[in-house]
Amino acid sequence: MTRVPPGPDAVDLVRHYWIPQWEVPAGHTERQVVLGYPACNLVVEPEGVTLSGPTTKVSHRDLTGTSWAVAALLRPAAGQPLLQTVSRAGAGHPVTAVGDLVDREMIIGDDDLCGSVTGAMVRGRVDLAVAALQEFLLRLRPAVTPDGLLANRLQELVEQTAVRRVEDLAAELALSPRSLQRLARGHIGLSPGAMIRRRRLQDAADEVRRQPDADLTEVALRHGYADHAHLTREFRTVLGFTPSQYRAGR
Questions:
Q1: Do 98 and 79 contact (CB within 8 A), yes or no?
Q2: What integer pLDDT is reported at residue 87 of this predicted model?
Q3: Checking DSSP bridges between strand 41-45 and strand 66-68, what pairing results, if any?
Q4: What is the CA radius of gyration of the chain?
Q5: Residue 93 confidence (pLDDT)
Q6: Less Cβ crowding at N or C end of the chain, within 10 Å?
Q7: What is the distance between the alpha carbons of residues 246 and 153, in angstroms, rounded to a whole number?
Q8: How many CB atoms lie within 10 A of CB 40?
Q9: pLDDT tens across 150-195, in order?
Q10: CA nearest to 71, candidates 100, 90, 48
Q11: Residue 239 vs residues 60, 61, 201, 212, 233: alpha-carbon distances, Å
Q12: How far apart are CA 204 and CA 51, in angstroms?
């Protein structure tokens, strides 16, 4: 897996580019389990281009053979402009807000983008593949709205600060709670409360992974859970396994 930061012109559109490449022996399958960011991903593979929406639960993909993908983890400001671009291209998808893509994905018929990225990857030029994807995304910049940039700020507040209450998020952005809800649905896809819960779960899971001997009750309390049982229920509901199973490598 290779990660590449966006160029300076794309920082409002892309968090980072990620390029997995794999070679799985014939007859074998490698399962990749992922708890994704609450964000959209634009993914180019040899078979085509896909826009994947934000997820509410753990997902997986079974890898076989030898292949690759070149993807952009999008920031909220890019979501609606990309959906508008797809709509104008006549893709026929009734998707008008990022919230309509939660736990879904849609095929984007862009043969030029797929061809440019595939040609670069065939030559072993990951840099050119990323450049082609970024050039495509930069065409969205004129359609970025002030609300899209405000949604970027909302995501930053949830992920990079100690703000953990929806009311406090609304106050930080000078919005009413109802306006905050509309902003989140239209540009991020999840409610502010769901974003906060996802951040809390990811932080707790990261601590369990990094400190396998940590007391799980203390981990729960540090991350805002009422008790160990509350943390365990959240793990099981979203991830499909308990903190103890996660710590033990399932």
A1: yes
A2: 66
A3: unpaired
A4: 19
A5: 53
A6: N
A7: 32
A8: 27
A9: 999 999 999 888 888 999 999 999 999 999 999 999 999 999 999 9
A10: 48
A11: 11, 15, 10, 18, 10
A12: 28
